[in-house]
Design a protein that fits this description.
50% helix; 374 residues; alpha+beta; 15 helices
Length: 374
């Protein structure tokens, strides 16, 4: 039988409409004809199978497990969503309220920024540290002078840090950033975040400082110069730690002297510690002796004047202009000089740098002024 006829019979065979004789013809033909055999095998009617009926219990188990998985996922998603909303609400409240100790979006951002600066300190990387802090307080200096001081500060910080902490490893660094009630309660209300840094060392010592963000985007370290007398009296830090502390304070604000307080100690015959403690440690004994000797006389320092800090380009040093007015009951004497200083403290003026003008006073008063700083 020809292929054309067999091809017409195959669909009829699939529907059971062929006679027995035709079925035999089809069977005989596809044994020898590959084309028709493939067509016979591919016919949907001839290859259809009856799908097995699934087991009802197994189907229920699968559906039940899928439902439980969906419920579990939905529950976890809901819990996470509630947690996220709670955290966002807490941070939003802190951002708007700005209460003491509150955490906010702003404080979290600053904590990341300050942690980087804290690591600069811990690693002794003071090139990066000095570049991260604000120098607004030195705005009265020229750019050239500011750059000279910046390089000096980098070296001083590196040297003093190695001297104070170079013999031990850093154990941990912690930064806590939140709004400060002390700052908020000031007359010129300003929302400021206090960033507390604490560095723990392996030998049990620790170092702490604070940073506030300045409007220029950099940070301010509000540390102040620690006098030698305070160090001796409080025993709060070693000499090496004090030098690093003062180098840190000096890097942020070169003006180490409280003029009003220092002027008061000069004019007073009784107060000594603050005055002498502000000087470089190698000159403390001489300055103490000079002040004591003047206090034992009948002469009085009636007035003292300090200029703002200035920079000597020849010596590459900061200094204050100093004027002292003294009286011995017969006349007056005016001493004019300079007091140079660095992060280590004040340096007493050299004799050649002292100029004294007199008006009716005794030679003894003039000599006492020459020896005022030892």
């Amino acid at each position: 039988m020809k292929c054309e006829i067999i091809k017409d019979l195959i669909p009829l065979s699939a529907e059971g409409l062929c006679s027995e004789e035709s079925e035999k013809e089809i069977t005989e033909h596809i044994r020898t004809c590959e084309t028709c055999r493939l067509l016979y095998e591919k016919s949907p009617e001839t290859t259809s199978e009856v799908l097995p009926i699934p087991d009802e219990k197994e189907t229920f188990k699968k559906v039940s497990w899928a439902f439980r998985k969906l419920t579990l996922k939905s529950g976890i998603t809901a819990v996470l969503l509630i947690a996220v909303l709670a955290v966002l609400g807490w941070l939003t409240c802190g951002q708007s309220a700005k209460y003491d100790g509150e955490v906010s979006f702003e404080s979290i951002v600053q904590s990341f920024e300050v942690r980087k600066i804290a690591k600069y300190i811990a690693d002794g990387n003071f090139d990066s540290y000095v570049d991260s802090i604000s120098n607004d307080s030195n705005s009265n200096l020229s750019l050239e002078t500011a750059n000279i001081l910046k390089e000096q500060n980098k070296k001083n910080l590196t040297d003093t840090y190695l001297s104070a902490y170079g013999d031990t490893e850093v154990k941990s660094i912690s930064v806590k950033s939140s709004y400060s009630l002390d700052v908020l309660s000031s007359p010129d209300y300003k929302s400021t975040i206090r960033n507390n840094i604490r560095i723990e060392f392996a030998d049990g010592r620790s170092f702490e400082t604070v940073l506030f963000k300045n409007p220029d985007g950099k940070y301010i370290c509000p540390e102040r110069y620690v006098s030698n007398s305070f160090l001796i009296e409080s025993d709060r830090m070693t000499s090496a730690e004090q030098k690093f502390h003062n180098a840190l304070a000096h890097a942020n604000n070169c003006d180490i002297l409280s003029s009003s307080g220092f002027e008061f100690t000069i004019t007073s015959k009784d107060i000594m510690n603050i005055y002498t403690g502000m000087f470089h440690e190698q000159y403390i004994d001489d300055v103490t002796a000079g002040k004591s000797a003047f206090s034992e006389t009948d002469f009085d320092i009636t007035n003292a004047y300090f200029s703002d800090y200035r920079f000597d380009e020849l010596k590459n040093m900061l200094y204050y202009d100093l004027i002292l007015l003294a009286d011995d009951g017969k006349g007056i004497a005016v001493m004019m000089s300079r007091i140079y200083y660095d992060y280590m403290g004040l340096y007493p003026p050299e004799k050649d740098d002292i100029t004294i003008h007199t008006d009716g006073c005794t030679p003894e008063l003039e000599q006492a002024l020459y020896n005022f700083f030892g």
